[in-house]
Amino acid sequence: MSQTRLLFFGNLQDIAGHSERIVELPADVHNGADLIKWISGDNAPLRSALSAPEVKLAVDHAITDKESELSSPEEIAFLPPFSGG
Amino acid sequence: MSQTRLLFFGNLQDIAGHSERIVELPADVHNGADLIKWISGDNAPLRSALSAPEVKLAVDHAITDKESELSSPEEIAFLPPFSGG
Amino acid sequence: MTAITVQILKADLDADHHLARFRSSNKNAGAIVSFLGQVRSENSHVRALHLQHYPEFTEKRIYAIADDIVARFEVDSLLIIHRIGRIEPAAPIVLAAAAAAHRRAAFECVDCVMDYLKSEAPFWKQEDSSNGQRWVYPTSGDSADLQRWGENCTKETA
Amino acid sequence: MTAITVQILKADLDADHHLARFRSSNKNAGAIVSFLGQVRSENSHVRALHLQHYPEFTEKRIYAIADDIVARFEVDSLLIIHRIGRIEPAAPIVLAAAAAAHRRAAFECVDCVMDYLKSEAPFWKQEDSSNGQRWVYPTSGDSADLQRWGENCTKETA
Predict the structure, then answer these.
(1) N or C terminus of chain C: which is more exposed, having fewer CB within 10 Å?
(2) pTM tops 0.95, yes or no
(3) ipTM score here?
């Protein structure tokens, strides 16, 4: 199976406990919502944070709906609301 | 009688033929309109240019209506429309 | 209390120098907006502009404009420098900068200053070109720009 | 064709240097507007900000924002420089500048760029203060600012 790099930005890396993690996606992870459920496991605060509507998913650099199907992504980033400038 | 310095800016100094002139105002020059008539003499282009509504009068540094009474001004400037910046 | 600086310059306007100085005296401001106007050089027949002013009166009027404007925006500092005399293509004519806690006030202040300078500051501009010299008149665009601002320099919601 | 420069800087942002360079490569522009955002220092408890970005993605997104915006304004050149890493009070965070033939386009372009950078550019800001570290969230003011601009970055007449 191919590997996927997961990235967590902003406060999400504090909640996840790391900013980056390499995983092999199980066959039953079809979309972002499945991914969130799988990687959160029993970490309820993480699941709630990642599922928040203001948290965006960038799949191989494309902002992607959490319901859209994932096709062997190399990199998935979880992006909380931006606060630059 | 006291002397008054007349100043002409922009294109008005080309039409007047000078940028500055010291005069003694005659007793029958009561306001800006009288002044324009008096200094223009038979120079019709100058009279017309100075009388134009967009030409402003600054009497001792105060923008003044051409109908307002003049009381021994030290300096009167004729200001065509501004074009700075 | 807003610090206002107004300068009428006969010599070259060193925009980099003045902006650097403005910035270094406004390090605590969250936002600094600057506007630099330069003599356009796309019309190659223009050899130079000559900017005329009315000594003392022009300075007074610009201070009055600046006072009016800073009373309406939350700015810490306002700088206005305007050239007079002969100015060649590509050289700066006018520099305006505002420092403020927040960017909206800084933007609107400089924008408003420029609209007022264009229409309300006593300068007269002569263009020296291969076709001779001619006095430049304000365009209807300049007074339209001014009308974007209400009595109080606040933006008119049209 | 508009020249677009985007830089993400880990080192200090030397605003004077970058602005001087931008000006010297835009001598033919009639108008240059710049915005400089600095870390406010009036809250003395803030020791520093930490700006995080998403390498490559952030650059791509800013270029996409810049492309969109320059398509809507008549500008010759657009410069965007954004700090990442640790930034102390009074230091610059972001510099944006536009050069154009006419001042309205330059003003609106930089104003629009800043509103978009605030809300649409992937940066995350952490505040390091005497009370510890906390992630900063965008304010409702930021998204209100963005709503000033229509789909095409043209000003909404509300």
Answers:
(1) N
(2) no
(3) 0.92
